[in-house]
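ABC transporter ATP-binding protein, pasting as requested.
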Amino acid sequence: MTQRQGPADPAAPMVAVEEVRRSFGSGPRAVHALRGVSLEIPRGELTALKGRSGSGKTTLLNLVGGLDRPSGGRIVLDGTDLGDLDEDGRLALRRDRIGFVFQSFGLIPILTAAENVGVPLRMRRAPVAEREERVRTLLALVGLAGHADQRPGELSGGQQQRVAVARALANEPSLIIADEPTGQLDSETGRSVMELLRAVVRSEGVTVLVATHDQNLMEVADRVVELADGRIVGERRPAAAAR
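Structure tokens follow.
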């Protein structure tokens, strides 16, 4: 396993995607999900990916998050070339340096909100006092300090996704990857979750890469990158990003 390549240059992008391709299958029936995508994701920014189903958004998220390997090209995350990592190295990368937020929340039903947030810290074997303090801090950050002892079934969809965001932040990741995090929420609740992610970028200094279909939610992003048929076809900075 290749070790982390020292402290990354703070002026360098958090993620550099270079001519990345990803195909599934072979021959005439092969599906080309990504066709030579190049993209830089700056540190401390919220980048939104837009595009219809099948455009390559989720494939790109999976590759950046080390959940899959490209068919060609190169991805560098915070100074580490993902192509140099074996499976154990990729596991460590996901555990220590990336937080994930999913459309389906992904909370453990039998655990309380606080226990769900603490799962990554338990996996890291953080001391109990440190773990409890971090959990309290994160639940307060996402506005759920008074819901620590409630289980997912006792929380609204928006509250569950806020717990998921807190859990993604538990190990102080460099990057948060969110795949349609508001897909199961109404528009108002969804916007509040996106605004929470925007606030997290400011308060925690974390970089966020999010895929979303909702045009309204893109307006809180620093940059919107559009994909179609596995290629980047457009990029813009919403007016609200001129902060």
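Note for the archive: The chain has a mean pLDDT of 90.
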